[in-house]
Amino acid sequence: MTTIDDEILEYAQTMDLLQKENKALKQMLRRYMTFGEPGNPGNLYNADLTESLRDAECMLDTMLRTLQVPAFAGEVIDNGGDCQDFVIASINTKFAEYLSLDSKDIIGKRFKEMGVLKSPLWTSTVTLACKTLDTATAEIHEGDDILQLSVSAVKHHSFVAHFVSASEKYSRQRNNHLMQNLKFRQMIVNAIPTPVFYKDMEGRYVLCNQSYAQNIIGVSPETIIGKTALELEEIFPREYAGFYQEKDTELIKDQGIQTYQGPIKCADGQVREFIVNKTLIKDDRNQFVGILGVMQDIDHMLKARRELADSENRYKTLFNSICQPIIVVDADGNIIMLNTTAVELFEEDESSLMDNSVQVIPAIKLINMEYVRQVYSTEKPVSYRTSVCKNGKERWYYCTMQPIRDFFGEKVVQIISNDITDIKYYQAEILQQKQQAEEANNLKTIFLSNIAHETRTPANIISGLSQMIKSGINPDKHYEYVDAISNNCQKLLEIIDDITQLSQIESGQIKLRHEICSINNMVEEAYQYLKEMLDECGKPIAAIHSSPIDGRASLIYADSMYIHQAFKKLISNAVTFTESGSIEVGASVDGGQISFYVSDTGIGIPKEKLNVIFERFRQVDEGASRQYGGTGLGLSIVNELVKCMKGSISISSNINEGSCFRFAIPYHQAEIQK
Question: What pTM was computed for the model?
Fold first, then answer.
């Protein structure tokens, strides 16, 4: 048994379905009015047709309310195929009087709730009409009264019904009602602005409105009533009358609906384009009794179509020629319109983009739903930045979102996006360059401070010892003083040599001198230099070198001076940062490269510093120059020298375990003539 709660739930579900259908219809209409019918570039927003449909709805309601016989309209509740349950949707005054009830007590009620409608004949007649989509009639006995019921189906789920009394006591009243209905019908027909006519099956005019008689033919309706087109030679040219008669014959033969278009000469002498719709009319016995014709003047509509098509083409050309992506969305973020640039950005075909279920496209990020809802609520523009992936690359867009009105006057949101990727990257590059410049300036400041310290210390020693020698203090130690002065002069010369060499590298003045040299000899020279440094510093460090390379494989074409310089810088660095353990120098041939290395057991280098130690003025710890000395140019010079020799340098290191510097250059074996 159906409860009130069930009915409320069913009503809510029905309303929800209607809203979804209405939304889907609007989406379809928006697309049609924007892009045209598939395969047909032009489209037509027919305001006249829309107005005519609205007039027709009002006219139907007016006719129902003003009929002089009881009438009502209804809807099928159970539309699963049985058509056995109905609800009253609209009534006229006569129907309310017949039931002796107020309209509020009738509208919305089911048949089974209304006493007079409980008869099975009411239900079966309405069911027959709705199932056949035709007119069904029945004779219903209500006590002493006999009702002639007529039900016409509008759709499978809606109908219009009226009935009259066939009993003796109501015959006069019924005749009066019929006369009033005929007059009302003529009045309704005359009120229709488009030409309307009605003929019998022989082609004689039975009815026509003023618009048809005066505007098309140029005579009063009484002039043509009862005559065929062929009998009105003074009005219709013979070829027109023959054409009309032929069309009527085709319609009767096909028993359907007929539509054709063509030029018609009107009463004012002008030839206009009309669409003529003809349909066969049936009586209550389901017999064809006449032909109803409705004409629509489409001359102005065709002109409007052409003007609209031209305007639309201009709009589309402008809309699609804009280089910025333009997207129009509704309140739910569904795409309504978009230009060519936006289609290219989304990298999807247009039909997929108009499908509301497609929400996996990367560029959909341009449609920020939080901002869409904000624009809907505040009706104020919103700007924001976002990134999308296009052709596998990240692109940045500056989006401006603002409310506009669509074809229906409803509020939608337009999004215009500007590609700011180049600007953003340029800004990032400028920021990076600024940071690099600031860092370089800071490093140079540190470098100058180190240079001042590194040069001042030996210079002070040289100056002090020179003054002691000059003054004759401790004559027996003058030899030691001279030796110390010589060593500090050598340190100053090394600093000057580093700066000079770096300047030469920057100016491109370094030139390679390829000559035949021995890998074993270069390793041996590096080993001897290592031993000398260890003897001078006195650290408990063992000097080790790799095994010699056998035979002629050790003879190569290379610049031995630059290799030796690189070795010296790496050995000096190893001795500086190693307090005990061992330092090993060596070389090996691996495929097409010679690899030279210096390995130590020193303090090691943190992994986060490995990528910066070859930069100029860099040390692992910027404060290390005070503890260990040095200008921070050594490893940078080694890196540049190796690059000049078309080689590469690498490092492996662990904190407190040591480091291994390795530089590799191309292996060009020397050819020795016997």
Answer: 0.37
